[in-house]
Amino acid sequence: MASQIRKAILPVAGLGTRFLPATKAVPKEMLTVVDRPVVQHVVDEARAAGIEHIVFVTGRNKGVIEDHFDRQYELEETLKDRGKTQMLDMLKRETMGPGATSFTRQQLPLGLGHAVWCARDLIGNEPFALLLPDMLHKPRNGTGCLAQMVDAYAKTGGGNHIAVYEVPPEQTEQYGIVALGNEMAEGVHKVAGMVEKPKKDVAPSNLAISGRYILQPEIFDLLASQERGAGNEIQLTDSMLKLAQKQDFYSVTFDGSIYDCGSKLGFLMANVAYALDNPEISGSFRPELDALLAQN
Q1: Considering only the top CATH level, what class is 7-295?
Q2: Most CB atoms closer than 10 Å: which of 9, 23, 34, 126?
Q3: pTM of the model
């Protein structure tokens, strides 16, 4: 029987240089998609999948993320005094409970693999989820990406799982691409191989790794001795390839849309998609958007 996935890592130490000057004083993870920060959307996804404890791997000038997930007594009292119970209840639902979050510093910009390794003592010897906060996964059927992965994890009895999605063949050289093996369940395959940024003529598929993982704790020992790879950084993919020689990896094809909020275009598309799906504003937003498009 597979162990329960209780903990998740969110690496949030990036500088967000592609969004300067907006991110000069505000962490990129705190930029809002409609009415909540990008990182809140990802935390919501993790909690919906049963995650009980989230480890944020942070850097300098990221303290506002910690404040965001803490209680604000003055704000709560003000809302209570003004009778805004619905808003107060929403804040309480979305506030992580005592001891449900941990924060550790990466300190050096050595890549995703290094960020994951920095959380090793807080995760301990148990499988964990890893969610890249730049990548928003908007489900088609209401079941979030990590929840789909946890379901697949239970069906396969454990192992390591990575979420994938289809990209145009000419874009494979921008992503990590997987080669599929046997189908284990609908949308779930054994991974026969992983290739980092292959050109389309040699890519084993057009299924790209989407920024959601379930990994076994043995990855930490591999990351500890992992040599620097592309970009002079410690690459998570390099250690996953080593782990795949000893443990099974499975791909889970995400049923939904993915928005790369680390890019300006992806961030803007996410705002439009989530706004159109928001019952509070979608009715008035859609005609305004249609009118704007008609003018251009």
Answers
A1: alpha beta
A2: 9
A3: 0.92
